[in-house]
Design a protein that fits this description.
Blueprint (H helix, E strand, L loop, with lengths): L1 H10 L4 H27 L1 E9 L12 E6 L5 E6 L13 E7 L4 E6 L3 E5 L5 E5 L9 E2 L5 E5 L5 E6 L5 E6 L5 E6 L5 E6 L5 E5 L4 E6 L6 E6 L5 E6 L4 E6 L4 E7 L18 E3 L5 E6 L4 E6 L6 E7 L7 E3 L5 E4 L3 E4 L4 E5 L13 E7 L2 E5 L10
Antiparallel strand pairs: 1-2, 1-28, 2-3, 4-5, 5-6, 6-7, 8-9, 9-10, 10-11, 12-13, 13-14, 14-15, 16-17, 17-18, 18-19, 20-21, 21-22, 22-23, 24-25, 25-26, 26-27, 28-29
Length: 385
């Protein structure tokens, strides 16, 4: 009787030794998983790619090429990727934009005359093309197949095959002075704006045709961004220290927001008080550049209209703002690294000679096992899901 009872107890799923063995197997599996995760983390790395010369002074702000900084080790200088793009006097042409795509492993750098495609693994230039009308700030489709490339302040955009550099289509936009291009996060629309027009052109990327015109805005359009579903646009315009908000579906302005507590005045570059605006990826805040006061102004984007909440002093006039993929860091063109959560400067960018690095053309690229796995964007677009 005791043997039967003991046998039944040993066969029971609640037997102590059996439970211990089961938990031991689970623990070993968890340890193996943790070890795998640690190995994977060791193989992951995040870098900030900064294209120079990105603003007026070609020497003081870091020279020529694409400078790579290590995001995981205090944004230390890693290396400089040489680029072409020299003028007839052998001087580097001004960089106008930067894009990248992880799956295709390509980096694109546009200067005033040419578009260069770089292999992200070998860091060799794969091709360099000179599109009709020159180049300005382009935007890439999410699949990495097409670039919408504005001419250099002419009146058209070139749609470029991102793998070959060949022209797919020309989109004419009379009297725009083509300048900036923002792709919707979904990739179904792309927004084309120029220095000479208060109208925002909207292109359907399936047909590559203009399907809507938004505006007019209060003046000619400068930098701008859109939220995750491209229902709202946040837009800098000439003469305004602040920004305007447009309802994209309705095709009209809904708010004009001015910076409070600061005077507008002359700026070093761009001729525009607010040149640079971005949404944090979670769309909780709008970050706005103030060139005259050397400030970033931060607005609460969870309320309508957005409400001013904080300001950050910078070392130079900012002309651009963008964010890390995870939304933890903000990068104004003046070269600071800012903690988004605390609004505090935590680092400044310096090149291999200790010179301060400033650029409006920068983005994050992440690698795993030496291969690119994620690429950020030069525009501070909303990415909330």
């Amino acid at each position: 009787m005791n043997q039967t009872k003991n046998r039944r107890i040993s066969d029971s799923p609640f037997n102590v030794s059996a439970c211990l063995r089961r938990w031991l197997r689970i623990g070993c599996a968890l340890c193996a998983l943790c070890a795998f995760s640690l190995r994977a983390a060791e193989n992951q790395s995040r870098f900030l790619y900064v294209a120079e010369p990105g603003i007026q002074n070609r020497v003081e702000y870091g020279g020529h090429g694409v400078i790579v900084f290590d995001m995981d080790h205090g944004f230390k200088f890693v290396r400089r990727i040489p680029m072409s793009g020299l003028d007839e006097k052998g001087q580097p042409r001004n960089v106008k934009g930067i894009c990248a795509h992880a799956a295709t492993g390509r980096l694109y750098v546009a200067n005033t005359h040419t578009l260069q495609c770089v292999d992200l693994v070998t860091e060799k230039i794969l091709w360099e093309k000179a599109p009709d009308g020159g180049c300005d700030r382009a935007s890439l489709t999410p699949d990495g197949k097409e670039l919408y490339l504005p001419s250099y302040e002419k009146n058209h955009w070139n749609v470029i095959n991102a793998l070959t550099g060949d022209l797919i289509k020309r989109i004419d936009t009379p009297k725009t002075a083509a300048h900036n291009t923002v792709m919707s996060p979904r990739g179904d629309m792309v927004f084309l704006c120029g220095l000479g027009s208060p109208i925002m052109n909207v292109v359907d990327t399936r047909t590559r045709n203009i399907v809507k015109r938004i505006g007019p805005f209060g003046a000619e359009i400068r930098p701008y961004t859109v939220n995750h579903d491209a229902s709202l646009a946040y837009v800098n315009v000439n003469h305004l220290l602040g920004f305007e908000v447009a309802d994209i579906k309705a095709g009209k302005l809904i708010h004009r927001v001015e910076v409070a507590g600061y005077l507008s005045g002359p700026v070093k570059r761009h001729g525009c008080p607010s040149h640079g605006i971005g949404l944090t990826p979670d769309e909780k805040e709008i970050w706005l550049c103030d060139g005259h006061n050397q400030m970033l102004h931060i607005f609460d984007a969870t309320v309508t209209p957005p409400r001013q909440k904080d300001s950050i002093h910078l070392r130079d006039d900012p002309g651009w703002i963008t964010f890390s993929i995870d939304g933890k860091y903000a990068w104004p063109s003046s070269g600071e690294v800012i903690d988004v959560g605390t609004h505090r400067v935590i680092a400044t960018l310096q090149d291999e000679q200790g010179r301060k690095v400033e650029s409006e053309k920068l983005l994050e690229i992440d690698f795993e096992g030496g291969r690119p796995v994620r690429a950020g964007d030069q525009f501070g677009r909303g990415l909330r899901r």
